[in-house]
Write a structure and sequence with these properties.
By secondary structure, the protein is mainly alpha-helical. The chain has one domain. The protein has nine helices and no strands. The longest helix is centred in the middle third of the chain and has 46 residues. The termini are far apart. The N terminus is likely disordered. Keywords: Coiled coil. This is DUF668 domain-containing protein.
């Protein structure tokens, strides 16, 4: 999908022998962020946001009753999430042995200036994320099984040292059992490494991540336009222009309302008694 020939990247076969390895766990967390952001931008969720959430009494009273202002807040939030995700992609790119993935921020800035809709990119990006999330699941399992393997290796070494200093007639039985468990666990880990992001080529995954950033840049623009670029009310700070803090305020406001309701009930019971 990615095509940046003439000053850009060239899509092709990923360089072999350059597996993600231990970096797979960081990449998995980054992929989850992109999946969550894409889910929040789906048509049904945006429709619910615009038609219900932004018109709710809590948001109207605690945040703003100006719909355009609320859209600017949401757009700023989504672009901030994308900035975090794309920043991690840039960092992974800089760690690649292939120089075409270095300094990706320049490429992303170029996309922002052009913002040309691409239907195929839309369809492919969603499919790519779904495929990557399957690898993320195996990567999560690998992380857990590596912890089990680490524990077994420590138990085995401890048991081996104990038996070296032991004169027991049953010497070797416990060690043999642990050795069998250790061998089995290593097979589990080896299998999961093949199924997970661990064994995927760095360049192969980078191409997919870049396409996802490209898609998200276009998708957020298609949904919100330049909403968060519009001027907000005088005196507003960057902190005020994001819905995140406002959402937290709403959470605490709900707690206060519940406490107030309980107090009213208690007062009523006292009066009755």
């Amino acid at each position: 999908m990615t095509d940046l020939s003439s000053g850009g990247f060239t899509s092709g076969v990923a360089t072999k022998g350059n597996e993600l390895g231990i970096l797979a766990f960081e990449v998995a967390n980054t992929i989850v962020k992109s999946s969550n952001l894409i889910e929040s931008l789906k048509k049904k969720n945006i429709t619910h946001l615009k038609g219900t959430v932004l018109y709710s009494e809590g948001v109207q009273n605690l945040v703003s009753n100006d719909f355009d202002e609320l859209l600017r807040l949401v757009a700023a939030d989504k672009r901030q999430e994308l900035q975090v995700f794309s920043g991690e992609v840039v960092r992974f790119g800089n760690r690649s042995k292939d120089f075409q993935w270095h300094n990706l921020q320049r490429y992303f800035d170029k996309i922002i200036k052009e913002l040309t809709p691409q239907r195929q990119l839309n369809e492919d990006a969603v499919l790519v994320v779904d495929q990557l999330m399957g690898l993320v699941q195996y990567t999560s399992e690998l992380y857990q099984e590596l912890q089990v393997l680490d524990r077994l290796e420590k138990d085995y070494e401890q048991k081996r040292r104990e038996e070296e200093n032991s004169a027991s007639s049953s010497k070797g039985d416990g060690l043999a059992l642990l050795k069998t468990e250790l061998k089995s666990q290593r097979k589990v880990v080896k299998s999961l490494k093949k199924k997970s992001l661990w064994s995927r080529g760095h360049e192969e995954v980078m191409e997919k991540l870049v396409d996802i950033v490209h898609f998200l840049l276009l998708e957020i623009h298609n949904i919100f336009g330049g909403a968060d670029d519009q001027p907000t009310k005088k005196g507003a700070t960057d902190h005020d222009r994001r819905l995140g803090p406002a959402g937290l305020a709403l959470h605490y406001a709900n707690i206060i309302m519940q406490i107030d309701t309980l107090l009213q009930i208690l007062r009523g019971n006292i009066l009755i008694n």
